[in-house]
Amino acid sequence: MKKLLLFLLCIVFLSTYTLQAQVTDSGKKTEKTAKTKKPKKEKSAIRTGWTFGILPSVAYDADKGFQYGVLANVYDFGDGSIYPEYFHSLYFEAAYTTKRSGLFRFAYDSKHLIPNHRLKIDVSYLPDALCDFYGYNGYQTVYNAGWAKKKYTDTYISRAFYKSQRDLFRVAADIDGPIGSNWYWNAGIGLLGYQIGSVNIDMINKNKKPENMLPEVDGLYEKYTKWGIIAPNEANGGWHPYLRGGISFDNRDRQQNTHKGMNAEIFWTYNAAFGEDKEFNNLMLNASFRHFVPVYKDYITFAYRLATQLTVAGNSPFYLSNYYNNLFIQRVLYEGLGGGNTLRGVLRNRITAPGYAFANVEFRFKICKFDIGKEHFFIGLNPFVDAGMILQPYRLNEREIRQNIAANDPDFDISQLDDYIVFEDKANVYRPHFSGGLGLKLMMNDNFVLSVDWAVPFDKRDNDGMANIYVKMGYMF
Q1: Nearest Cα to 184, choosing from 76, 328, 323?
Q2: How far does the chain reach from its first CA to its final CA, in angstroms?
Q3: CA-CA 20 to 30 A from 92: which of 151, 189, 215, 328?
Q4: CA-atom Rg of the chain in angstroms
Q5: By the 8 A CB rule, do 78 and 50 touch?
Q6: Do residues 55 and 71 lie in contact, with contact meaning Cβ atoms separated by under 8 Å?
Q7: Residue 96 — left, alpha, or beta (φ > 0 → left; ψ -120 to 50 → alpha)?
Q8: pLDDT per position as a tens digit, 121-148
């Protein structure tokens, strides 16, 4: 089944409808243009004009399920003088997944609208009826796969046990400008609006057979709320406008399909809050370093990323701790730690903490190159290893939690608390999480990338030892 899915995705990708338009001032080739026309072989090496692609938004994420919808991407390569970079990119996508996660997004990216500056705008609405919630501090919270998987008939509770409902509305605008010698200043402004609550069991059970219906039971999110681990003023989300600023260094040969160069960033994000959430005003620090080392021509590249996110002032609600800040949003949503954008193979949101660090290391092999019409393609393989760890944990007070359970959850058997949280072994909080796997890439025109990653965690506490598959657009970094 997986091989068939991959084959179908490749066929869809290769059948992308493209339209190229090249126009001079008069709408016709001038005599000068004809005289200076490049040889056919050289001309085919670049892309010019507008390229418009529409294809089904077909993807698969082990955490979100099979995705179906439609996407469109419009590129303006202009006269080809900066190819494979583009003058303008407009991206539209509307999709939904079988695990009831939605994606409605518009993104604009340009280095030409404001000369010598890059501007990126993102407007997204991301409803998620079954958003993963695995508690705080990674291994300090016990993950019991038997509670959420039907195959463990003796211990099964509900497949929604480790879920909550989360809807996210995001508006973001980011810009950078040159300082000199590959250094840039960066600034951004945006708004994050979260609506969080219990899973809507009635909606999930609609039109399902009785044997497939979910029971009305408390999941981990409800227990954390009753136990006071999740504060009342963060339990249902909130609205957070933010300001962002920093500096970056970038001498990569290209932003997509990078073969050589470095990209380093350090920036601060101030998240404000309204009303009862005002205590969640906070300042976050992000730093990342990406390095691409050519090993053999442009066929083999060694690539790695080191990154951290820290809460340096104020308090961060748990849902903002799960949001990984980026200077320029490429993929739909970066969640940390765990999942297809940070630690592949590890459960999405498995590690929730105010501060963490992670690393991704991979070799990028180009297996073959070929052309279809005027479009340039290559197929690549990427073996990789990912790692992450907590630097700033949540402080879980065992005494207060026990008191809250006695007061607010009297039906809970307090002797079973150790099945949820490990208090005695503090080293569990800082123990690294590792995963590894193999990626398959199909790229068009050095910009449009179909990515299929297969990954497995090294520790069963991160996903019961199960392998995950992610089908996404673009490289992870």
Answers
A1: 328
A2: 28
A3: 189
A4: 24
A5: no
A6: yes
A7: beta
A8: 999 999 999 999 999 999 999 999 999 9
CA angle, 297 then 300 then 306, to 5°: 120
The rounded distance, in Å, linking the Cα atoms of 53 and 109 is: 16
Look at residue 71 and tell me whether its pLDDT is greater than 90. Answer: no
Extract the tokens encoding 310. 């820290």
Who's near 291: CB < 8 A, 6+ residues apart? 262, 303, 304, 305
Overall residue count recorded for the chain in this entry: 477
Whether residue 235 contacts residue 198, with contact meaning beta carbons closer than 8 Å, is answered with: no
Q: Which residues have CB under 8 Å from 105's CB, separation 6+? A: 91, 92, 93, 94, 122, 123, 124, 125, 126, 332
Which residues contact residue 413 at a Cβ distance below 8 angstroms, ignoring those fewer than 6 apart?
none
> What is the distance, to the nearest Å, from the Cα of residue 378 to the centroid of all Cα atoms in its chain?
24
Q: Please, which residues have CB within 8 angstroms of residue 237's CB and are 6 or more apart in sequence?
A: 166, 193, 194, 195, 196, 197, 317, 319
Tokens of 462: 């991160």
CA nearest to 237, candidates 400, 103, 126, 102: 126
Give the angle 254-259-262 at the CA atoms, nearest 5°: 70
pLDDT tens per residue across span 378-402: 999 999 999 999 999 999 999 999 9
- Mean pLDDT (whole number) for 299-323: 95
Cβ(216)–Cβ(201) under 8 Å?
A: yes
pLDDT higher for 17 or 199? 199
- Residue whose pair of structure tokens reads 């480790």 in the numeric block: 162
What is the Cα–Cα distance from 179 to 97, expressed in whole angstroms?
43
Residues 6+ apart with CB under 8 A from 34: none
Write down the pLDDT at residue 434. Answer: 97
Rounded to an integer, what distance in angstroms lies between the CA atom of residue 97 and that of residue 173? 27
pLDDT band at 404 (very low <50, low <70, confident <90, very high): very high
- Give the residue-averaged pLDDT of 445-453: 83
Please, are residues 355 and 386 in contact by the beta-carbon 8 Å criterion? no
Q: Which domains does the chain have, with CATH numbers?
A: 2-29+48-473 (2.40.160.50)
Give whole-number Cα distances, 129 to 38, 99, 174, 456, in Å: 54, 8, 29, 25
Q: What is the mean pLDDT of residues 150-168?
A: 91
Strands, E assignment, 33-110: 50-56, 59-61, 65-76, 88-97, 102-110
Kindly give, in sequence order, each residue whose CB lies less than 8 Å from that of residue 28, ignoring residues fewer than 6 positions away: none
Q: Among 470, 441, 455, which residue's Cα sits nearest to residue 97?
A: 470
Residue 308 and residue 267: Cα distance in Å, rounded?
Answer: 11
Q: Cα–chain-centroid distance for residue 53?
A: 23
